[in-house]
Write a structure and sequence with these properties.
184 residues; alpha+beta; eight-stranded mixed beta sheet; four-stranded mixed beta sheet; 4 helices; 12 strands; globular
Length: 184
């Protein structure tokens, strides 16, 4: 009976890692409250994240097929888009592995953050050519909202004006307004 149970557990672990659709519940690392969900669509190469946490609420799409991340920040009523750079954004399998570890071992906390800047006043509404480039998943997330292009940067010393998004306790996305100094 113990062998059967062990075999069943192993099959469950391997099935969860190879299944085409995996959903994870995301907990706040400090309070352990459920703050969102993350669904990995392996066949479509999509990670779909929904965070519900007051002013920090957001929806994020990682579209590995098209190579872009889009985050809709509800507090700013805007969409922020960044090209996926392999050196700073984990691949689909790595995100799945981190989520699986986080779900099974509650004490694991990954402080990985990606910092990105945008220029206020430099937005546009999406057009057909944008949606062809970004794909239908990002189009569905961002249609009708101003689009801002994000540029990855080094961590800032002052993050007071930054918004938090991404995948809580797995991969944070810090979105900050780029301050442009006026010369007089």
């Amino acid at each position: 009976m113990k062998r059967f149970a062990a075999a069943l557990i192993c099959l469950g672990v391997f099935w969860a890692q190879t299944s085409a659709l995996n959903t994870f519940v995301l907990h706040d690392p400090i309070s352990n409250y459920v703050t969102g969900t993350m669904t990995i669509h392996s066949e479509e190469q999509i990670v779909d994240v929904h965070v519900r946490s007051g002013v920090y609420s957001s929806d994020t799409i990682f579209d590995y097929t098209h190579g872009y991340i889009a985050t809709r920040l509800f507090s700013r009523n805007a969409c922020f888009i960044m090209k996926i750079k392999k050196e700073i954004i984990p691949d689909l399998q790595e995100i799945g592995r981190l989520a699986f570890e986080r779900e099974t071992m509650r004490d694991v906390y990954s402080p990985n953050n990606v910092w990105a800047l945008f220029q206020a006043g430099n937005s546009r509404l999406g057009h057909l050519k944008d949606w062809v480039l970004y794909g239908k998943h990002i189009e569905n997330l961002c249609t009708g909202l101003p689009l801002y292009e994000l540029v990855a940067t080094e961590p800032l010393t002052n993050d007071d004006g930054c918004a938090s998004a991404g995948i809580p306790s797995i991969l944070g996305l810090k979105i900050c307004e780029e301050l442009i100094a006026n010369e007089y």
